[in-house]
Write a structure and sequence with these properties.
The chain is built from 2 helices and 11 strands. By secondary structure, the protein is mostly beta strands. It has 2 domains: about 70 residues, no CATH class; about 60 residues, Roll (SH3 type barrels), CATH 2.30.30.240. It has a 6-stranded mixed β-sheet, with no helix packed on it. A hairpin with a 4-residue loop joins strand 7 and strand 8.
């Protein structure tokens, strides 16, 4: 089957990963047998999808993966872990809350809002000092003009 990734986390999938194929009327669990990258798409097969008719019935499905199945590297986080964190500068000034994450070709961009003001913070080490999930905070490096 062919899949168009909606997230850069798709590359974390591997053979033997359990996934859910979600259609508007059904959710089917299956285990990835093989996975390879082909241009913008990924070609994958599942042990549980045994013929073309079954595969055709799943066309347009969303692929969902339990978070526990993903192995994130040090310093990598799921979007749902970042959204809602309070953004604070290294000097202790509160900037706002992360309300959204935009994806660009180069890196994610955190949308931080405080009152009516929004800041777009590139999710790169030059700007992000530390993510403290237990404290629900993200520490940002202060840079001239960034929070004006």
């Amino acid at each position: 089957m062919k899949a168009l990734p909606l997230s850069n986390k798709f590359v974390l999938l591997a053979p033997e990963t359990s996934v859910y194929l979600c259609t508007p009327s059904d959710v089917r669990q299956c285990t990835i047998r093989s996975l390879r990258h082909m241009g913008r798409y990924f070609i994958f097969s599942c042990y549980d999808i045994t013929d073309m008719n079954m595969a055709s019935s799943l066309r347009g499905s969303m692929i969902a993966v339990p978070a526990a199945s993903l192995s994130l590297a040090e310093g990598e986080f799921l979007q749902e872990e970042i959204i809602g964190l309070t953004a604070i500068t290294t000097g202790g000034a509160e900037i706002g809350k992360v309300i959204d994450i935009l994806q660009s070709r180069a890196h994610d961009i955190y949308v931080v809002r405080r009152n009516e003001k929004e800041y777009l913070i590139p999710a790169v080490r030059e700007f992000i000092v530390k993510v403290l999930l237990d404290e629900k905070k993200i520490i940002l490096r202060e840079m001239e003009g960034l929070f004006d």
